[in-house]
Amino acid sequence: MKTRFLLSCLASIACVVGLGASAAAAPVAPRVIIVAGWENGADTGDAPGEYQNWVERAHLTRQIPVRGVKEPILRANDSGVYGLVLRSGAAELMALALDPAFDLRKTYWIFTGISGVNPNVASVGSVAWARWVVDGDALRELDDRSIPKDWPYGLYAIGADRPNTLPKDPNHYGSVTDVAQLTRAYPLNQGLARWAYALSKDVPLADDPGVARRRAAWPGSSPASKPPAVLMGETLGALRYWHGKARNDWAEDWVRLWTRARGVFVMTNEESQTNQKTMRLLARWGYVDPARIMVLRSGSNPSMPPPGVPLTRSMGDEGPGQNLAFDNNERAGAPVVAELVRHWDRYRDHVPTAP
């Protein structure tokens, strides 16, 4: 009798312990994750990078560990808003998604950061919601000094025979059977992007006297001469840091080519394409919902110099534009985060859209 009683007690205890362990292991489901590419120094209290304004203004005071990552990359507030800084790149996106402590299937993502801005479309300090992220890495390249005379530049699609044409034979890649699989343009949820733009388009943006003085170098008819604004437009990601009118022409053409003339090149940076490749893989595996991904980039410097300024002098000269871009990125994105959190009962199961 005593033995049966003891076994019964032990079974009950095991059951309770098991239930407690299951409850403790219930994954956290962030409502929104704001993704930044890098940060200067500390996350708070010093000169800002892409992350700090979000951390401070969204009160992301709690640091959350991510399994397998040795440095702090994740913060949160009590409203379900998280901030993720990719200190070591897209591998940390993968680590977060594969950590069983998190359930990201209902999470909205805002990939943020600063970029070179196309002066033919917008000015430094402007912010753009993307409809596509276009990959500028996978291409063929010939030295521009040795290209055929009727070519605009020596960059063109793999499998094509000249610039500004799509590949005719998809099997040029070996395992590809449909030319659509060769796309260099990763589509985002355009209805969601339009919804986000509608919430943020009238947000008061900051300006800077130093940036305003630099705008005066552009002709008055140029968009680069105007104050910062919120707009919609595409992000081109390329690992190489390019600059100048010749490459700006290529970027405009490349975005137009791969979006079938529906996209407009506005922002360029070095990581958006890598991040979206990772997110597309995670979506295919069922860890994230691709319909909930947004990309919000802000311009810190023009992607080509104003008239009369040498290329070598303007290359990488971001000056006061960086801080303005950090500031306006958060200003434009904040209303979208606030709306998602405020009406989470609506947006948890129904992704918002706009015509």
Report on the architecture of this protein.
This is Purine nucleoside permease. InterPro entries: Pur_nuclsid_perm. It comes from Swaminathania salitolerans. Keywords: Signal. Mean pLDDT is 91; it is low at 9-23. The chain has one domain (32-138, 184-347): Nucleoside phosphorylase domain (Rossmann fold, 3-Layer(aba) Sandwich), CATH 3.40.50.1580. With 355 residues, the protein is of the alpha/beta class. Strand 3 and strand 4 form a beta hairpin. Helix 3 (91-98) runs parallel beside helix 7 (272-284). It has helices at residues 2-24, 52-57, 91-98, 190-200, 209-215, 245-258, 272-284, 311-314, 321-342, 344-347; strands at residues 32-36, 62-64, 74-76, 81-85, 108-117, 127-129, 132-135, 140-141, 155-156, 185-187, 230-232, 234-237, 265-269, 293-302.
